[in-house]
Write a structure and sequence with these properties.
Shape: extended
Number of helices: 16
Structural class: alpha+beta
Largest sheet: 5 strands, mixed
Strand content: 15-25%
Distance between the termini: 95 Å
Number of strands: 24
Radius of gyration: 44 Å
Mean pLDDT: 78
Helix content: 25-40%
């Protein structure tokens, strides 16, 4: 019983009070007979009851101490009626389980899984410095040296050590050298030393910066203030640089394709050679296997092959007496045989048949050796060719990804140039109007935002917001349009808040397609004409919607002022749908923005 035969389990009970079954992913799937009915996991330290049921030791002990009955059949049960099941334990430990660490694919026997977990490269480790971060074992060194907020960092200004999480406090308050006033080397503006780097890399209008096309060949540097002028004047040159770079990438891609095709051809030729070698080998084996074997009375030679002909004092009467070796194999091989060819002391006779007797031992071994060497050589060449093909495929994939990236950048630059050089006149075409209208009604897509466009190449950046199902009190009856200020590259050079004139027009596409000269009316006028509204933004109005977009004032939506200004009752939805504003399932909105100060 457990009291007498399970002493070791009793000794471990205090250390394993919380342990139930083995919680692993098993391959193949865990059999039901190895599952504990209480924890529904694989049996750990399995025990068997008098009533014939198996449980984890810890599970059944905890259960019967609360209620002394078997959880399966409700029979009376106490600790003295529980026995260790060594046989089942061995079977469970023989099961194969997958390492529970993420990204680890190791599958091993259950008895070794704990040792593997302790040394697994993918095991999670908690930072030893106390930041609470969990990471893979191979990430520990980089975390402790570069990322941990509890690591000690040496200040390159004053030489003091401080916690990485206190870097901002140390630099801005404690370090005397970092707070010393210095001049910007470009604009001569005075500021604290620790702010110089951020000022030069982000704010200084006289700091030289690389052209955005420097990766494709434009090596010019201009001040941040003049870089926009360079971009405008060098558009054609930049496109030529891009075209040259794309052509170069395509040429390299073509070369890689040719090399890969050559490699594929070599692989095919190698496979064909291997097949021919295998065919020749099969033919040779077939030819040798068809040679008849004559049994002899002599003792077998333990060193000879199984198919070797045995020669002794006489030939057994397996053939008629008129059949001689000459008639069976031909006289040419037997007429010239000598005593030495007959096998010498060991009684071996050379019948002149390829692959038989001592000659076979001498000739077959080199043949097999040559075959193995040839096969090994071909396998090595095949592996090298496979590696080269993989390298070429990786290079091609990289080149293709580069080309896709370049094409995407070219498209983005083209779109950005159009938006930057539209001089405040922007046409926004909203496609799939019916679908977007339905999504606006259901609330799936209540708001549409246009790309940001500029009043001039170095001017203000604006965006349109359209509510196709209206807002507030006009939901379901009117289309609402609003204007939003966006963060631009030259905001620090502009006068804020924005002042000027903004007009928003819903274009009647049917009238324009018919070639009619339509007048422009307000939203309250009759249909079948372009509907337009105008906003006059004066200096005195000081509206929040036209202030600079920054962290302190909106801009939470990715460089866009959250506050907008526009028209709730811009156009009735019924008029949009029936009076010619929708054509080819799209509507067209025109914005014309003119700034008083740029």
């Amino acid at each position: 019983m457990l009291k007498n035969s399970g002493g070791n389990l009793e000794e471990k009970r205090k250390d394993e009070e919380e342990i139930a079954g083995y919680d692993y992913e098993f391959h193949p799937q865990l059999d039901a007979k190895y599952t504990c009915p209480i924890c529904l996991l694989a049996l750990k330290q399995p025990v068997q009851t008098l009533c014939g049921h198996r449980f984890c030791y810890q599970c059944i002990i905890t259960c019967i101490r609360k209620r002394p009955r078997c959880p399966v059949d409700q029979e009376s049960l106490d600790e003295s009626q529980i026995f260790q099941d060594r046989s089942t334990e061995r079977e469970v430990l023989d099961l194969r389980a997958k390492c529970p660490n993420k990204s680890c694919d190791v599958i091993t026997e259950l008895r070794y899984i704990q040792a593997h977990e302790n040394g697994c490269e993918h095991r999670s480790i908690i930072c030893s410095l106390g930041c609470g971060m969990k990471m893979m074992s191979w990430e520990v060194e980089d975390h402790l040296n570069e990322k941990c907020q509890q690591r000690m960092v040496n200040c390159h200004n004053c030489g003091q050590n401080y916690l990485a999480k206190n870097q901002k406090i140390h630099v801005t308050e404690e370090c005397e050298q970092a707070n010393k006033l210095v001049q910007c080397p470009h604009c001569n503006r005075e500021m604290k030393r620790y702010k110089i780097r951020g000022h030069v890399t982000g704010d200084c209008i006289k700091a030289p910066i690389n052209c955005v096309f420097h990766k494709v060949g434009c090596l010019q540097q201009h001040s941040r203030m003049n870089i926009c002028t360079h971009m405008e004047k060098s558009t054609q040159i930049h496109l030529q640089y891009l075209l040259r770079h794309v052509s170069k990438v395509e040429l390299e891609n073509d070369k890689l394709t040719v090399e890969m095709n050559k490699m594929k051809k070599q692989v095919q030729n190698h496979q064909q050679d291997e097949e021919e070698e295998e065919d020749d080998l099969k033919k040779w084996k077939l030819k040798n296997n068809n040679i008849p074997v004559i049994k002899m009375k002599s003792e077998p030679d333990p060193g000879s092959p199984q198919q070797m002909m045995k020669v002794g004092s006489g030939v057994t009467q397996l053939f008629p007496t008129d059949i001689t070796p000459e008639t069976l194999f031909g006289s040419s091989n037997f007429g010239t045989s000598s005593p030495s060819d007959a096998g010498g002391s060991n009684g071996m006779m050379n019948l002149g048949v390829p692959g038989i007797s001592g000659r076979r031992r001498r000739s077959l071994s080199p043949c097999r050796s040559s075959e193995v060497e040839t096969r090994t050589e071909f396998e090595n060449k095949f592996v090298k060719i496979e590696h080269l093909v993989r390298e070429l495929m990786v290079k091609m994939e990289f080149q293709n990804s580069q080309m896709k990236s370049l094409n995407s950048k070219m498209s983005q630059i083209h779109d950005d140039q159009l938006l930057r050089n539209c001089n405040g006149v922007f046409y926004w075409k909203i496609n799939d109007f019916d679908r977007l209208r339905r999504e606006a009604v259901t609330g799936e897509t209540p708001v549409l935002n246009s790309p940001g466009f500029y009043t001039s190449p170095w001017g203000y950046r604006l965006s349109i917001r359209a509510n196709l199902n209206g807002v507030d009190d006009v939901i379901g009856s009117y289309v609402s349009l609003f204007i939003h200020m966006m963060e631009g590259e030259n905001d620090h050079l502009l006068t804020w808040p924005f002042t000027g004139t903004i007009s928003m027009t819903l274009v009647n596409q049917r009238q324009h397609s018919l070639g009619m000269t339509t007048s422009t009316t307000t939203a309250t006028s009759s249909a079948n004409f372009d509907i337009s509204e105008k906003i006059e933004v004066g200096k005195r109005r000081n509206l929040e919607a036209f202030k600079r977009c920054n962290n302190a004032n909106g801009g939470g939506g990715g460089g866009r002022n959250d506050k907008g200004y526009g028209f709730v009752y811009f156009c009735p939805i019924r008029s949009v749908q029936t009076d010619g504003f929708v054509m080819n399932d799209s509507i067209l909105v025109k914005i014309q923005a003119t700034s008083c100060t740029t």
